[in-house]
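Hi R.,

As promised on Friday, here is the backbone we talked about, encoded as structure tokens. Could you run it through your design pipeline when you get a chance and send me back a sequence?
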């Protein structure tokens, strides 16, 4: 390799050595979330997050498990109706009430 190119690319040669490395290694770096494994969740109405079930970025969530509890004031009437219909046991009314939610 041409010495000028070697200088420009900051290429250094050294002798291989065997040594014991300490318990800690300090280095610089950039951490970044994998955007391909990120999902954005949106509700169809505005509300308030009451509880989030994940603990940290990167926690795995299994299908069907809750992500968050939300309170949506606009749905209070429909939710009360659904709970009342649920107690009746009428499948057609339950399905219709569920569709409104």
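Update: got your reply. Pasting your designed sequence below so it's all in one thread:
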């Amino acid at each position: 390799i041409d010495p000028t190119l070697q200088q420009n690319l900051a290429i250094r040669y050294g002798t291989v050595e065997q040594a014991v490395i300490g318990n800690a290694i300090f280095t610089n770096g950039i951490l970044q979330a994998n955007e391909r494994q990120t999902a954005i969740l949106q509700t169809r109405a505005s509300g308030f997050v009451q509880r989030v079930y994940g603990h940290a970025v990167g926690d795995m969530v299994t299908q069907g498990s809750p992500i968050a509890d939300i309170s949506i004031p606009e749905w209070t009437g429909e939710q009360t109706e659904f709970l009342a219909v649920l107690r009746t046991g009428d499948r057609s009314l339950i399905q219709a009430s569920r569709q409104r939610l």
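One thing I noticed while checking it: The longest helix spans residues 76-88.

Thanks again,
M.
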